[in-house]
Fold:
Amino acid sequence: MGMKRIGVMKWKIAFVAYCCLILWLSSLAPKELPDQALAVPDYLLHFLEYSFLGFLGWAAFGGSGVGFPWGLFAYCACFGIADECWQDWWSKGRSPEVWDVAMDAAGSFAGLLCSMVFWKK
Structure:
């Protein structure tokens, strides 16, 4: 296996692990979350969380085509919807919010766009 292929595989593993981390955090009740996390506005947390998901998505799967990676964006946005559903099903005291999904999509778009601009593969 070539070095480049190993590098890409590491990013793919990081991407999947981060998706699992998001789901785990979404399954926690509000009292189980760190106090510092609750001090930051919820919309900002969602934006930053999914910006990083967009970055990892670009690192793992991006750079192969020309133009914006709409497929990766669609995955991240759909994952945000699934994350809100997961939160509704598994956590106690938390509910799905449309604005959280909107910030998830905006964050993933920003993460993908910044990765495209600043990280040339």
About this structure: The chain has five helices and no strands. The mean pLDDT is 87. The two ends are 19 Å apart (CA to CA). Helices lie at 3-26, 35-39, 42-61, 70-90, 98-118.
